[in-house]
Each structure stands twice: as structure tokens, then as C-alpha cells.
Amino acid sequence: MDRNTKIDHHRFNSELNRPTTAPPHQPTTVIKYMTPRTIGLNLTNSFQGSLRNFTLPNIDSSLVAPTLTTNYGLVSFVQAPLSSAVAPIQNIDGEHIRHEHRELSKLHETLTDNILLCCHYEVHNRAQELQLELFQANANKNSSIIEKMFQSEIETGHQLITDASRYKSELNKKLTDIHQVTVANDEHYQQLLSKRNTTNKEIFEYQRKLAQNRAESEFLRSRIQQFNDETNFYTLKNNILQTRQVKLRYELDEETFAKQVLEMEFGVLENEKITNEDIHLTTMNDIRQSININQIATIEPSNTFHEQLNYELRRMKSEFERKLQTYRDELHRKFELEYHRYRMQKSFPTPNVLREHEMNSEQFKREKNDIEQQLRFVRENIYQLQSQIEIIEKKILDERVNTESI
């Protein structure tokens, strides 16, 4: 038996010391800890396999149990009591990441169990070698049985070594797969981090746009309030203007009616002036023709002239009253016609022509002023005619007095 076989202490250290390929010393790095386990040595003669019923005589008293150290190889990972608990995993954003980490922890747990099983077999093999040394020291006692037991244990050991070698290859394959999965998970984790950063940037951009939209909505709301205030102001102003429009319409109708009245009065006065002038000329001609200087002493011209003058005045007065009544009737009919038109316009509302009405009203006012000036001129002429008539009457009276005195 080759007793110089050594265990490779660092065979799995390169893969187990770092369970993840994520960058160290970062708050987002997931660090997993495998709880160490301690494998107890079989020093109580409770062997298994073909040696399970074999007992060494006075093994505890005749052979000092060697002190085995487990500070070499894979045993250095399993020095604490048996425990399958894993330290809690630091929280990472996303339930999917936590699920992947739990799966990775389970794979590490399986790898640890297999490594511990391999270590157990190696330690058991070492114990068997120690027992073989003990058997050689006690070769004189039960040598044949010990040799058989040794051969059986050797075969069992070889079988265990073969199984352990097979398990090691499987564990190496699993470790390679786990490493590949870890690399893939790290890449996926980096993708998730970049995606999270992109999402945070998009969220920030959306929040900025939302704040901008809120500011614009507040500005538009204030502008709408201003427009509503202006609308209310102009509505009130429009009501005032409509009231003023109605008032101006009434004034326009009154001015129109007054204009028509003044025009008719002007026509009447013009006709009256012409009539008075004709009457005056006719009277003067009649008087001149009726006066006979040769018969002044025998006739009474003054009385005749006075009677004729009174008659003409009464006739002119009656004629003027008749014409005035005719014009009054005509004005009344026109007024009723205009009033009927006004009521028809009120029943059928017309569009807003306030500016046009104001211009018409100003024009009517100017025409009214012109007509009033003409009326004043006509009245002055009438006053002049009356003064001339009075002068003529005075002259007639003077002539009559002179005639009587003669």
C-alpha cells in the first residue's frame, strides 16, 4: 500500500473561495457564506462494512489516538458544527434576482455536501491507514484475520476512492456549470442594473415633463381665469352699451320725429311767408288803387282799409289754422307709421348697429341744428314782416289822420 499519497489541499479553493464573479466591495454585490462543518473521526472502533463486527483489543489503551488536524485540503472549509443553514442574503432589487440567488445558494449547498462527503471518505481512509499501522504493530495477534480484514478494507477503501473520484469529476462538472451559471447571472445582473439606471433616467425625465406640464396647466388655468374675467367685464360693458343703444334708438326716433316736425313747420312757415308777402303786395296794390286824392274829403278810406285789413288778417289766420291742422294730422299719421315700424323692429331684433346709429344720430343732430337755424331765420323774417306790417299800419293811420286833418 502506498502511504505517500497526499491530498491536494488547494484543489477546490480557487473555485470555492469566491462563489460569485460580481465585483467585490460594492453594496450591490451578493456575498454568500458557506457554514463550515466538522467531520468527526471514527476512533471508537465502530467500523462499517466488513469491519463492523471487528473490535481491536485494547485499542484505546495500547494505541494513543493520533491527533488529526483538519487544517488542510477541503477540511478547512468544514470546521464548525454541522449546519445546512446559510447566512441571509443581502436584499437586491427584484424578486427574480433573489430567486436566482436562492437557487445559487442551493447549488453551493449541494456542492458543499459533496465536498464534505469526499473529505469524510479521505479522513476515513486515513483512519484505515492508521488502523493498518496498528495492525502491523500487533501482527502477531490474529494476523490472518487482520490480513483478511485488511484486504477487505483495502477493497472497500479502493471502492470508496473510486466513488470519491467519480464524485469529484461530477462535482467538478457541477462546479463548472455553477461557475457558468454564476457568470450568466452576473451578466444578467449587470443588464438589470443598466436597465434600472435607464428606467430611473426615464422616470426622472417623465417627472420633469410632468412638472413642466403641471406648470403649463397652471399658466393656462390662470389665463383662462383672466379670459373669463375679461369676458364678464365685456359682458357687463355690452349690457351697458345695449342699454345705451336702446336709449340712443329712442333719442334717434325722437330726433327723427322732431326733424320731420321742424321740416313741416319750416314748410308751413315758408308757405306762410310767401302767402303773407303775396297778401301784403296785393293789399298794397289794392290800397294804392283804391285811394283817390280827389275824393279824400268825400270818402272814408281809413275805415275801409281798416275793415279790409281785419278781414285779410282773419282770413290769413283761418287759412293758417287750417293748414296747421292739416300738417298736424299728417304728422300724427307719420308718427303712428314710425311707431308701428319701431314696434316691428323691436319684435324682430336687428343686429348690433350701435355705431351706425350713433353716426345717424350725430347726422340728425347736425341736420336739426341746421333746421333750427333756418327756423330762426324764417322767424326773423316773419318778425320783420310783422314789423313792416306794423309800420305800414302806422303809416296808414298817419295818412288817415293827415287826411282827416286836411
Overall description:
The chain is mostly helical. The protein folds into 2 domains: 13-213, no CATH class; 237-405, no CATH class. It is 73% helix and 0% strand. The protein has 6 helices and no strands. It has helices at 13-16, 59-62, 95-137, 143-290, 301-347, 354-405.
Please give a quick description of this structure.
With 406 residues, this protein is mainly alpha-helical. The chain is built from 6 helices and no strands.
Q: What is the topological layout?
A:
Elements: H1 13-16, H2 59-62, H3 95-137, H4 143-290, H5 301-347, H6 354-405
Helix pairs in contact: 3-4, 4-5, 4-6
GO molecular function, one term: structural constituent of cytoskeleton
Coiled coil: 354-395
Biased composition (Basic and acidic residues): 1-13
Identify the overall geometry. Answer: rod-shaped
User: Main sheet?
Assistant: none
Counting H and I runs of at least 4 residues, what is the number of helices? Answer: 6
What is the gyration radius calculated from CA atoms?
Answer: 71 Å
Structural class: mainly alpha
Poorly predicted runs are 1-20, 22-92
Helical content band: over 70%
Measured between the Cα atoms of the first and last residue, the distance is: 204 Å
Number of strands: 0
Task: Give the averaged pLDDT, no decimals.
Answer: 70
Keywords:
coiled coil, structural constituent of cytoskeleton, mainly alpha, disordered N terminus, 6 helices, 406 residues
